[in-house]
Design a protein that fits this description.
Elements (H helix, E strand, L loop, with lengths): L1 H15 L16 H16 L1 H11 L10 H16 L4 H15 L4 H14 L2 H6 L1
Amino acid sequence: MRRRAREAVLRSLYRHEYLPPSPDDLQDEPLLPEEKAFAQTLLSGVHDHRDVIDPLIDRRARGWGLDRLPLVDRNILRLALYELLFTDTPPEVVIDEAVELAKAYGTEHAPAVVNGILDRVWKEGDAQRAVG
């Protein structure tokens, strides 16, 4: 159930790279009501906390930086970091789901990049410092 919601949020975040956010972003997504509610929480959370999330990506994307990451990979990281930092979803689940999204939608190297950045944020305690 939650994977479909995450995929819908990823599509919406990708659209936001080109178009302004809209309150109807998830309107046309074929989601069950509970999936849509979860997706809306994630989407709002990513938007509300980009000032925390984007600098973390920028610091952890060794040799790249936020602006050089491919759009899909960048948005997978935004989604996963929001969930890692600001929800009670277990970190292992967040990382696994993000890697699966990266395999399905990201670039060739996305699964390794996503896994590496999320693992460093989690293990080095950035998650606790960012919200604490």
